[in-house]
Amino acid sequence: EAGVVQSPRYKIIEKKQPVAFWCNPISGHNTLYWYLQNLGQGPELLIRYENEEAVDDSQLPKDRFSAERLKGVDSTLKIQPAELGDSAVYLCASTPSRVGELFFGEGSRLTVL
Amino acid sequence: AQSVTQLDSHVSVSEGTPVLLRCNYSSSYSPSLFWYVQHPNKGLQLLLKYTSAATLVKGINGFEAEFKKSETSFHLTKPSAHMSDAAEYFCVVSFNAGGTSYGKLTFGQGTILTVHP
In this predicted model, what pLDDT tens digit does every residue of A10-43 receive, in sequence order? Predict the structure, then answer.
């Protein structure tokens, strides 16, 4: 069974440029998460989807961040424009239920210069 | 509100000696608790989980954790460390109540485990 797939694994951009990350969850997993992980810290939730619906986006900086999950499968996280402080690892995770084990992708490491 | 505190940012042990990674939580409702491990440049992997069944939970790779409600703790242990255990470990708490916070996971800051030969 394929795991959670994220791309790109690494991205280097200049500040004020846009960037997008893509996530393909495990087949059949209705709940999808995007987390932000800064160096030396635990992951912090950005947004949680149940199928197509964003059920918790309270910590998503909506002035520059956006996300979508069309058809309740793949998801895209976008930053526009990127700032120096956005340098971090962006993790995607999925689960078949709202409470239980999360399956994580390997993350997308963003460096903003 | 729920929170989780990992009491040690770094733990260093010798190979073959016991491992103890400490975690305390705060939750207004009956929590689910998890330990995840993250090896360098890899995704997080579930080690074990507590979801209101047996208080002593066994996980993969010889790890186990005990849920102690009176102490609001969920410490992770292993009798004998192996070099391959060197990684970062995260304690995680999840709400089990209703509302929009249902299923929201809160991660601790992580504990880096170093294993010396």
Answer: 999 999 999 999 999 999 998 999 999 998 889 9
What does DSSP assign to residue A65? E
- Kindly identify which residue of chain A lies nearest to residue B97, measuring between CA atoms: A99
Task: Compare all CA atoms of chain A with the CA of B9 and give the residue at the minimum distance.
Answer: A40
The Cα B87–Cα B112 span in angstroms is 6
Q: How far apart are CA B54 and CA B39, in angstroms?
A: 28
Instruction: Say how many residues make up chain B.
Output: 117
Q: Pairing mode, if any, of strands B10-14 and B32-38?
A: unpaired
* Res B98: pLDDT: 52
**Cross-chain residue pair A44–B90, CB shorter than 8 Å:** no
Of chain B, the percentage scoring pLDDT greater than 90 comes to: 68
Sign of the torsion angle spanned by Cα atoms B58, B63, B67, B70? positive
**Smallest Cα distance from A105 to chain B, Å:** 5
Look up residue A112 and give its two tokens.
Answer: 């903003």
